[in-house]
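Step 1: inspect the first sequence and its tokens.
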Amino acid sequence: MKQKQMRVKISNNRPLLDCGLFSICIITIFLVMSSCFYERTANGALSETFVSVAKNIKPSVVNIRSTKVSKRDKLNKGRRNPFNDLFPRNLPREQPGKGSEIDYQGSGVIIDKKGYIVTNDHVVKGADEMIVKLYDDREFKAELVGADPKTDIAVLKIDAEDLKPAEFGNSDSLEVGEIVLAIGSPFGFEQVVTSGVISAKGRPNMRIAGYESLLLTDAAINSNNTGGPLVNLQGKVVGINTTIIPQTGDYLGISFAIPINIVRKVAEDLIAYGRVTRSWLGVTAQPITPQLQEILGLKSTIGALVSSIEPNSPAANAGLKSGDVVVEYDG
């Protein structure tokens, strides 16, 4: 009798179990559909942000074509070949410059309405002529205002109207993992946009420039893309794209940009003085690691170990020597 009652009870609870399973299935389907919907919405919003940023920054990005004439061509320029006068029909016409001009293309960023443009020093270094092409296909000859090889920054100027300067951001506030866009003119194409993230900050010792505190990104930056802007999702320039590593001209997964806070200071000095004004100590130092602390018998890792001193430098005149440990300074 008890067994029979037990079977009856189980039989009576089955509809409840079926209902519960049905409810779980409905909830699961709802959650999956909601997740897909939110994912599509998020992707759509991110895509719209990319499009908006690209549209806003493109008018501020320029293509730079620099031309360097060989020394031989410069020497021959203006010289007349007497045989051309004697045998004008038998000799081909001399074409000075043909086959002796070296062209290099890069990118740049308009920084104000007066026509000042920031680019890389290596884009225009040694150039005899620089042509700037704007977003609307207008072309202008540019003059070199100043260059700073130590940071690989140069400033050009063009005489043009209706320019749209880029808006600067704050490179110090960048976070690793933050999405950025790189704009430039790789391989002769114009206004190419690539995306990536900030992979690291403050990378020194990359042998790209003398003063280094570089941003590392996985956004594709090829050889002709250098000098263009690296922008955040607010459309503000946070860096100037520079040489890729290794220096082969091909993108191999990592690229570098000069932080815009450094670029602004360098550009301001170049515009005002034609050169960059810097304080100079003449000392190379390195941080105190726990290993150095133990070897040197120091009480803490606070300070810096002097690695080398440049002769006749302010540091040498002050009596600093290689091997000294600086723990504090006055001033």
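Step 2: inspect the second sequence and its tokens, then contrast the two.
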Amino acid sequence: MQENYKKIFEIGVSKEARDLALKYGYLPYMIERYINIFGSLHETIEFLESVEHGLRKSIRCNTLVASDCRVLEERLERRGIIVDRILQLPHGYWVIDGEEKIGHTSEYIYGYYYIQGPGSMTVSYVLDPPKNSVVADLASAPGGKTTHIAQLMNNTGAILSVDKSPARAKALKANIQRMRVENTVVLVEDILRLRDLNGAFEKVLLDAPCSGEGLLPFKAERKRSMTMLEIKRAHELQVRLAKKAVELVREGGILLYATCSIGVEENELVLRELLEDREDIEILPTRWRGQGEPGITEYMDVNLGSELKRCMRLYPHKHKTEGFFLCLVKRK
């Protein structure tokens, strides 16, 4: 890590940040970061208020089981569950009524749908895996994105779905079976220990392990769950994982780096270090149907590079999604 990047982790906390942290129940350093991310107290408060209000539950219709999603709508309505299309997500639905039932239906058991946030759904659409392609999904459990990728590929081609945790891989395998996925092999392994797969994949998804602070609308405990030191350690691992992920991409192929975090430390700074490590990659414009704020190019008086504005950020107060970061990287 370059010396000037270290100041990003040496954050001072203002009185305004302390006051907001006390009011909303956060660790103060987190609020200071949000003030720097959004550039104003006004938008920071908008974000914090949106977290307090939470998000509706949402589901993804699985066309590997329900070839016509209107059939799913009708079946759920008969059970007292009312859903409404998420306009920008072809298979996404808000749960308008009956949220408490959504994980306890026969349709859920038989794989008609997956309970998934809209930001998480957006990831697979942005990856845009072609049919009959060869794709890797790294750190993939519990399988929301693996099963979505398989759906978009209509069970053609091949997916390698990797997770190092045997317990999480068990849930991954269960969801692959439940969602009727047939084109996926699960590998229980540390990504950093993968061998003989360099250049093997047309598209690679790295939904990197992260602080998960983008999930604040669902998980209030994230307000106080990580110190700045832990975020620094997460960043260091993310850089190592991103470097490994690029190696798995064939020439001309695509890596999608994503996290359910809005922290610059876990996102743009990771991409900055990746760009400095390799000359054979470039950032591609990353948006989905007009959605997404540009990536952050300057933070804590550190210039991260103008190309990072091509990355994509999602926020609850602007896009009604959980917080997410997505960035397409092409290997030349």
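Step 3: confirm your contrast with the notes below.
The chain has three domains: 3-53, 58-115, 118-331. The first strand starts at residue 58 and ends at 61.
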